[in-house]
Amino acid sequence: MSRTVGYLPEVREDFVAAFAYYEALSEGLGERFEAAFKSAEAEVAEGMVTHHRHFGHYHRVVLRHFP
User: Fold this and answer.
1) Which of 60, 65, 66 lies closest to 11, judged by CA?
2) Structure confidence at residue 60 (pLDDT)
3) Distance (Å, rounded) from C-alpha 64 to C-alpha 4?
4) Which of helix, strand or coil describes residue 1?
5) Which domain of life is it from (predicted)?
6) Residue 5: CA atoms inside 13 Å, Cβ hemisphere, count?
7) Average pLDDT over residues 42-65
8) What is the per-residue pLDDT across 11-52, written as a single tens digit (0 to 9) for each?
9) What backbone torsions phi and psi does residue 58 show, to the nearest 5 degrees?
10) Using H for helix, E for strand and C for coil, what is the string for 3-63?
11) Distance between CA atoms of residues 20 and 31, nearest Å
């Protein structure tokens, strides 16, 4: 099963800010954050049920190691 992954408008701004934040903490950490984000995105797209629906058909995904 494959899903189309879409985002609320605020996600892009949040992603850019989080990437910059983690990269400022430690060089390369922003890239690790991006990889974790893409991995979670793929899991949701592939239909994995590890991420609970938050409302309607939207899933909330919390990345491990990146609060």
Assistant:
1) 60
2) 73
3) 23
4) coil
5) Bacteria
6) 18
7) 74
8) 899 999 999 999 999 999 999 999 999 998 888 788 765 656
9) -90, 140
10) CCCCCCCHHHHHHHHHHHHHHHHCCCHHHHHHHHHHHHHHHHHCCCCCCCEEECCEECCCC
11) 10
Reported for 40-48, long-range contacts at CB under 8 A and 24+ positions apart, including other chains, are: 41/5, 44/3, 44/5, 45/2, 45/3, 45/4, 45/5, 46/1, 46/2, 46/3, 47/1, 47/2, 47/3
Residue entry with tokens 């939207």: 58
**Residue 23 and residue 30 in contact, taking contact as beta carbons nearer than 8 Å:** yes
What are the domain boundaries of the chain? 10-59
